[in-house]
Specification:
The complex is a heterodimer.
Chain A (H helix, E strand, L loop, with lengths): L2 E12 L2 E12 L3 E5 L6 H8 L7 E6 L8 H4 L2 E4 L11 H11 L5 H10 L13 H14 L4 E5 L7 H17 L3 E5 L3 H4 L5 E6 L2 E7 H4 L3 E7 H8 L4 E7 L2 E7 L3 H9 L3 E4 L2 H9 L11
Parallel strand pairs in A: 3-7, 3-8, 5-6, 6-7
Antiparallel strand pairs in A: 1-2, 1-4, 8-9, 10-12, 10-13, 11-12
Helix pairs in contact in A: 4-5
Chain B lengths: L8 H15 L11 H8 L3 H13 L3 E4 L3 E4 L3 H27 L4 H13 L1
Antiparallel strand pairs in B: 1-2
The chains are: A alpha/beta, B mainly alpha.
Chain lengths: ~300, ~120
Amino acid sequence: MTAAIEVNSLTRRFGALRAVDDISFTIDEGTICGLLGRNGAGKTTLMQLLTGQDFASAGTIRVFGHSPVENARVLQNVCFIKESQKYPEDFRVKHVMTSAPWFFSNWDAEFAEQLTEEFRLPLGRKIKKLSRGQLSSVGVIIGLASRAPLTFFDEPYLGLDALARQLFYDRLLEDYAKHPRTVVLSTHLIDEVSNLLEHVLVIDDGRIIIDDSADNLRGSATTVVGTSEAVERFAQSRNVLHLDRIGGICSATLDALSPDDKHAAVAAGLELSSVSLQQLIIHKTSSLTSETELSA
Amino acid sequence: MRVDDSRPIFVQIAEQIENDILSGALPENSQVPSTNEYAAFHRINPATAGKGVNVLVDAGILFKKRGIGMFVAKGARERIVAERRSTFLTEYVQPLLGEALNLDISVEQLAAMIMKEGSQ
């Protein structure tokens, strides 16, 4: 598989702050990749670097094999939907839709029209009069109908209701199946999107802490629950991501248990449960142990 | 089927297709839905759905007709039954016995329960 994005030792400094700190990764062409992480982790900075809207302090970026900076050949294949896109004063929704094909050669006007109806977006309304959710749907429609070979969605759905988000996921999957392309999806709603993702990148404090396929991550961590004594004995020589206590009961989230480990845990009288991608990322991006001791 | 978090999704997709073959919803030699249809239905990544289908192709449960799609192989149901029977003891009988033991239900009482339920 060829890489849509190749990043090597990329760093972006703002004074003393390293917003992106010496990271390297690749994103394969034709995949839906999740770029996840906490607020201020460096996701948006990274996407700005990848789309040539910011300049690296060090390191290299290759998008479809070339540097994106001031490179029309690369940028015409890239669509970047930002959290808060600014539009010219007095622009109406229809103006956005009519100007989109100037920037995106694959623009599908019919698809855009269908989406506008489905999202119930009033074409004649001024952009600045739109609600937060409606503004987000403008971005979602542009991102989908542009069919750019590489599309970034940076928190595309601020203010979007549950129904509209589901519509976005459904249309994204359908259209991606018909017109395969590379999609980078940055979001905090990890549970909602985890099934859509093929690959997951988690960035924390400017560094990549997870770079793996969604399949590998799913079920890679396990929570064991039992008496404190039994849990502690079992967790001893293992990598503990998280520990909770309540009374004499202890719950430990452990990294990568083999089937043999799991049998051993059951034999030791522990109860096993799986950890969702969202929980796994929360555990990996927060401090290791938070002990909530509740006295009876 | 609800996709859960405990196991890779492609494994769950493969199991679901097997269940449909077992129940007769997908008879032998019939065409199975495309990966894109599975992806849209379960709201999952098409590559993941494809991986689930490929597991069954590798196991000889499904076969590909070029340019047409995927079909249920002859003898697929029998093979799934044999495979699942081999794990029935560890997956179902042993946990059942374990829980019965916890509840002070004797093996004889358990056997009687099964006979009673089975005859209904």
